[in-house]
Structures are given as structure tokens and as C-alpha cells.
Write a structure and sequence with these properties.
The chain is 88% helix and 0% strand. The chain is mostly helical.
Length: 313
Amino acid sequence: MAGASLFTLLDDIATILDDVAAMSKVAAKKTAGVLGDDLALNAQQVTGVKAERELPVVWAVAKGSMVNKAILVPAALAISVFLPWLITPLLMIGGAFLCYEGFEKLAHKYLHSAQDDAARKAEHKAAVANPQVDIVQMEKDKIKGAVRTDFILSAEIIVISLGTVAGVALSQQAAVLVTIAVAMTIGVYGLVAAIVKMDDAGLYLSQSNNGAARGLGKGLLATAPRLMKVLSVVGTAAMFMVGGGIIAHAIEAVHHFSQGVAASLADIPAVGPVLAFLAPIVVDALVGVLVGAVVLAAVMLVQRLRGKKAAAH
């Protein structure tokens, strides 16, 4: 009997672990948009730091990210226990914020002139080159800014993950959220470290006496800036798809419309299954763009009204 009970317990544990793994995969897929943006933003945050200080800065931000998640995971579990009705509104807010961030990126070149961007970059380069500037304080400011950005993105990741496990036992919710928090932190900041050192590795290899190594080094030097651009584009597109998907699924009419379009396209010979797969993604992305535009317009209106109010005083 004792042996049978032990095997039953082990089987239950294995089943729970399988469930946690499966739910973690679902949560990871749903947070892909935030992950892409998190990766691109954090890689950009450490640009401009001296080469020998890049990895220490990434490590400092990674530690700050773990502190953020150590705060956010218990808070999310407390919401799940005491305020479960709040999960859907938080998901909607997180989705709208993703859409807003994505649309703000698209509208950036229209909202900010090229001269302003060039002036900011020139100012930063001058500050780094100026021996009178406190580089240590500048580095601390960069880390603080990156950790603040990470807190917002981590909150989105945790809330989206919580939405995928809202109906299961608290212990499984905790296991999934901890798994996502640790995996996302290691994955994001491990990749950030690799990306920011890619150009240094390329420069080192390009000076090698070995022809193959020089070729690889030149390839890395050419790839590094392009990779940043690709990450930015992919991250923005994923933000619309994930954010728009959260909102579309919460609005029954939009969700039924998306499913109806997919069902009507499925009957098309040869390409039907592919179109049926893509249709909901396209609808989600369009919803994301629309929501992002509305939220950005509202934010700009509030800022303008505040500016007029401040000028009046």
C-alpha cells in the first residue's frame, strides 16, 4: 500500500509538472510581443556605454529586473486570490498599453523631427566624450531608467501570464509565473548581453590573421546594427498582434468576426488553411493598430490640455 501510494504521489507530481510546463509554453507565446519589445528596448538602453562597462550594466539591470519580478509575482497572485475580477481589466489595460507603445513607435518620425533626434544623439556623444561629465552617475541613471522600463514591461508579462492560468490552482499559478519570470529574465538579458557584445566580438575577429575569422568578424559587424532594426520591427509588430489579440478576444463581437473570417477562408482550395490561420492574426494586428492610434490621440490631447493649463498659470 505504501509503495502504491508513493507511485500515485509521483504520478500526481509528474502530471502537475506537465501541466505547469504546458501552461508556461502558452504564457510564453502570449508574452512574445512584450518579450521582443523588452529585448529591443534593453539592448538600446545600454548603447553609448563604454565597451568594458556594457556587461556590468546589463548585469545591474538584470538584477533590477529580478527585483521587479519578485514584487510583481506575489502581487499578481494576491490579485488572483482576492480580486480575480481585476485580471481581465488589467489584461485589457496591458493590451492597450502594448498597442499604444507600438503605434507611438510608428508615429515617432512624425511626432519628432529628425533634427531633434540628431541633436539628442550629438548631446549624448558629447557628454560621453567630456571628461568633466560624471560617467558613473550617467551609468547609474541609465540603469535606473532601464529598470523603470523593465518594471512596466515585466508587469505586462506577469499580467498576461496570469490571464492564461487564471482558472487553475494557486500553486500552479505560482509555478507558472515564477517559471516565466525566471526564464524571461535569463532569456532577455542573456540575449541583450550577446547583442551588445556582438560588435566587439566582430571587431576582435576582424583583426585576426585567419581569413575565416576575419570574414566572420566583418559579418558580425555588419549584422549587429541590422539585428537591432529587425528586433525593433518584429517587436513592434508583435506588440500589435499580442495587444490587439488580448482586446479582440475580450470583445465578443470582434472575436466572433475574426473566427467567422477564418472559417469562410478555410474552404478556399489549397491556400484555405493558411489563410484561415493568418486571418485572426491580421484582425488582431488591425485591432491593435486602431487601439494604439486612439490611445495615442487621447494621450496627446491630455498633454496638450495640461500644457495650456500650465501656460495659463
